[in-house]
Amino acid sequence: AGGWISGRKPGVKLMGLRAGYLASDGLGYVVMSACAEAMDYAVANGASAFNCSWGSSPGVVVTAAQNAIANGLVVCEAAGNDNSTVPNALSGVAGVISVAAIGKSGVKASFSSYGTWVDISAPGVDILNTYGASGLPSYASLQGTSMASPTVCGVAALLKSHHLWFTNDEIDTLILNHTDDVYAANPGYIGELGTGRLNAYNGLAVLTTASFDVDTAFGKTPLTVQFTDISPNAPSGPYHYTFGDGGEAFTQNASHQYTLPGIYGVTFTASGPSGPHTRTCPELIVAVEDTIEYADIMLAIGQKAPVPVRVRNTHPMTEITLPFRLTGTPTIFLDSLTRTPATAGWTVTLVFDNRFSGQIAWKMTAPAGMSLPAGSDSVANLWVRTNLFGTPGDVETVDSATYSTNTLRLKSSWASFKPDFVGGSITLFNPCDCPFQADLDASGAVDAVDLAIVIDIVFFGASDVQDASCPRTRADFNDDGFADAVDLAELIDHVFFGGPGPADPCAP
């Protein structure tokens, strides 16, 4: 009952009110004054239905029940387990639904009380329950009109959650007027088991129920979704869609385009003879604008270097499949894949390997409970190497392909899909064409002038120097791919304290 409302929280709450005690004889008893207080509490705190799985006597509890009904609550009471025609005190209160118990075959339970004062029958034999056994949580198969009454109360909650504006009179009418025949199986109790056997479906079937289909719920922006009304008992509307991104429509069927990536809930209201009904589907539409990008690099002949792999993801990712293919000159080879800080705890699995023909694939999987947050981050380094027979200026393209079932793919908690691909290129150069690292003023020596320039780059946002024929920026003294404080410290050590100098690009 209640379905799902905003935030994926159940739409119906249970209010457990204790009005009894365990006596010294080991039996449980209820106190009528406490039951009356419980009813008054339920009214004051917004309850919609109240179940009385206990016997009753005249007095304050009758007054409390009348007050609850006057305030719109559906009140259900167990008819009793004495196989008697004597009603409880609550059975005579106008608006209280008195419930007899029947078994699986529809026959009156041997223990159930009965009479013209009974309003309806419901299952009350072999009902599986949660059960406290001497304080320990357990389960038990129970019987009694105390099982039948809350079943009716639950259907009242179902109908109320479907049409929130319905009064208790309207809900009572739906319950009592849409039952199944019970007297064919009980010819000796004609008129004494109420209007028949409880049937939740029959009560719902006459109501307008908002419902719709979509032709797709996941895809790349701009994502066009077709919404089709399939609501029973709403032949002519009016209708209203809200699409979760600010858009809306007032037609029975609607087409809507999601232009921005995001996760969108959709609300649809359909109206019919019983009034309007609204269905809310949170997190229904997932629109993505994700890419996997391979960087452009320059690679010295005879050396190995990483190609950074960046993911731009709209939603948290839990798995990344990276197939690689090289197209171009035959002088560059795929070597290995390493993780970055963003994927430090991830598992890397080689799932396809034919690297010397330029084809290889890895799968990266996040640990349980972890994911790559939405955003843009470097997730891996694809290491490539060259032989000694390349020609400066040769270009190799890093591409994506499908090998067996291993295709470029991102996986989130919503779906597994193929993102957009942005390829990168690898350009060969002769390392002897490059100047020394950290010689930022190209003077032929690494000195205090270069140190001042590096300080300006690392701490004050100055631009680094990039040589057209080399893959490196000159401020990257230790050639680790980053110009940072580590390079500055090593450069200070070299200039002032005789520490190691930059690597000779022409050294073997």
Question: What does this entry show, briefly?
Answer:
Helices cover 17% and strands 35% of the residues. With 508 residues, the chain is α+β, with helices and mostly antiparallel strands. The chain is elongated and about 110 Å long.
What characteristics describe this protein?
17% helix; alpha+beta; 7 helices; 8-stranded mixed sheet; 508 residues; 5-stranded mixed sheet; 31 strands
Structure description:
With 508 residues, the chain is α+β, with helices and mostly antiparallel strands. 17% of the residues lie in helices and 35% in strands. It contains 7 helices and 31 strands. A hairpin with a 4-residue loop joins strand 24 and strand 25 (359-365).
